[in-house]
Design goal:
The chain is of the alpha/beta class and about 250 residues long. It contains eleven helices and eight strands. β4, α7 and β5 form a beta-alpha-beta unit. The radius of gyration is 19 Å and the shape is elongated.
């Protein structure tokens, strides 16, 4: 079966439409040098990942309803560099620079095939959007990589108040009065495309949506239909154009 029943298509952002130019711990290392950091990116990798996880568990969804999202990220940066900088280092300056740089093309680029798949779906008549676990910077990021104008809406977990894999974030989209959104949409008319098995594919399915996975991980074929998995957006667009897509 093809896309004939699909009227709304959403994408995840990170690692689906967007890619990091370098891994975050590598960029943290680069900027950290200007503030006296002398370690390696491997020194920061575990610290950053552990502190991000700690903050997410203690203050989920970038601190939604508990703190300002910028302060959430400042705490991540401070904890990551704790004991790693000279005592007189301007850690606030480093945190603010990282927060600002991660709005820009210094840190992000558009994944190959993004324009093409969006163009094809737009020509097909689909209503297009983004659903992503992200803070409010996402709108500016998508504008900076020049893809925002191809989207009808952008919803972040921070703005909605629910984070994937909670299916409520998908239900939220169906309840919103978005200009131009097709009327009488049902979950079966919706398709979500992302790179994370749990947060994108299974979460969308739990909401009653159709879902596709963008991943090169062959192990996923053991738990979901292989025709729902594509290694990249280019292959996805080709499958759509050749009417070889089976989302059901």
């Amino acid at each position: 079966m093809s896309l004939r029943c699909i009227r709304l298509v959403t994408f995840d952002a990170t690692n689906t439409l967007l890619k990091f130019k370098v891994q975050p711990w590598e960029y943290y290392t680069i900027l950290g040098r200007d503030y006296g950091f002398e370690g390696s990116d491997e020194d920061l990798k575990l610290r950053l990942l552990d502190n991000y996880k700690f903050m997410w568990n203690k203050y989920p969804n970038f601190g939604k309803n508990q703190m300002n999202w910028e302060d959430w990220w400042r705490q991540v940066v401070k904890k990551t560099f704790d004991g790693q900088l000279p005592s007189n280092a301007n850690i606030e300056g480093l945190a603010n620079q990282l927060i600002n740089d991660y709005k820009t093309t210094k840190c992000w680029y558009l994944r190959d095939g993004s324009h093409e798949v969006l163009n094809y779906l737009r020509n097909y008549g689909a209503f297009l959007g983004v659903i992503s676990n992200f803070d409010p910077r996402l709108v500016e990021i998508l504008r900076n990589v020049r893809i925002d104008y191809k989207l009808d809406f952008i919803y972040t977990s921070f703005d909605v108040g629910y984070a994937k894999p909670d299916p409520k974030i998908f239900n939220h989209v169906l309840m919103q009065n978005i200009p131009g959104k097709p009327k009488n949409l049902q979950p079966k008319n919706c398709l979500h495309i992302g790179d994370d098995l749990e947060k994108d594919y299974k979460a969308a399915k739990a909401a009653g949506w159709n879902a596709l996975l963008i991943s090169k991980n062959k192990n996923y074929e053991e738990c979901i239909p292989k025709e729902h998995i594509f290694p990249n957006l280019i292959d996805l667009r080709l499958a759509i154009s050749k009417n070889k897509l089976n989302v059901f």
